[in-house]
Task: structure prediction
Amino acid sequence: MDKARKQQFIIKVCCVIAAFVLWLFITSTENPLTTYKVKSIPVQLLNTDTLTRSNLVLVPGQDLTTSLNIKGANTSILLNAKAENFKVVADLSAYALKSGEQNIPIEIRTSPDNVNVVNSDSLFIKINLDDLKQTKLPISVNISGKPTEGFFASAPKLSQDYATVVGGSKFVNLVKKILLVENIQGIQSNVSKTYKLKPVDQSGEEVKEVSVSPAQIDVKIPVSKTKSLGVAIKTTGTLNSRYTLASTKATPEKFDVTGSSNVLSEVKTLNTENIDLSKIDKSTTMKVKVIVPDGLTLVNGNATTEVQLKLDKVNSQDTTEVIQNDVDKLAQKTISQNINYTNLGENYGVKLGNDKVSLVISGKQAIINSLDIAKISAEVDLSNLVEGSYTIPVKVSIPDGVNLVSEAPNKISVTLTKKQTEGTISNDNKGK
Result:
């Protein structure tokens, strides 16, 4: 009995082993169907022109991919299946489209051999559409930096002043202006370039979800030389005999102008409109227009200056004498004098930024009428100056009985350069 049981146990063990071996054989040779998931397969949208005809646009930034569940008899085939092995499309022309989210059926056009798609009959892709909008906005120019000193950049000239922003209404509404950006630091000549246009929101951040038409424009930035000119105060008429014109002052006393080199070299000062002294009976300050010659343009500000007129009273005895004697009436005169220089080192040459000064003088009529203007001098002192550029006051000397009302300019630029030493070398050789 024990022997029979032992034999049965051995038979059962052998059956289990045989069944396991048979299973291994079948799985290794027959390999039944298994399932595998391929992710991130791009979906190609067909007939997208349907969106334009429907005044719609695809909202940017969407994930237009899908996943497919596939089956195959060979595991290695499934594992080698890649997203690029599939062609999946969605035809937009076959459906009534509207703004918002909607599901569009997708179709599998191409797939690997020996592979079946399990979920091919229930595939959809969710797309988000927005109303197509376009708006016309002015182009703003954002210029940073400054040209080299002595040069001025005029307002940019654009090939067109407006551009059109196109895209979904949600993003188009974010755009507040269209910018082009340029840095002109250190330039000395005209700029002519093609610039890309950038749509920005209220905070200046670029809105990348829209397009701009045109995408770029041509821009020219004119750059010209500048010159600083003093203000010469011009007057007409005669003050009441009870007063003398003690002084005049313009604020600002200088203006920077730009223009052609020829015009800039000819103009030394900017004249004010005439101030009628016969209408003034007390010290006062008034706004006066500055006359800018043709061919010149102010760099900044308006062509006006505040002129301060200071009057002094004449004592009663002098007043009687003035009334009795016409030649003792007070008079004013504007003259132009050459600017000379003194104390220039023998090893230097000099170039003056201005060679003339405009002077307004006043005094008794008899003195002014007989005045020898050669007795009036204007000069700059170059003592102890070496090679370089300087701004130096103009010192004006006038004879007794004459008052200096104003001078323009009261300072000028001076450039000293060292002379060539050829002659000096010859003398040294001779001494040797």
Summary: Residues 77 and 114 are 8 Å apart (CA to CA). Confidence is low (pLDDT under 50) at residues 316-324, 423-432. The first helix runs from residue 2 to 29.
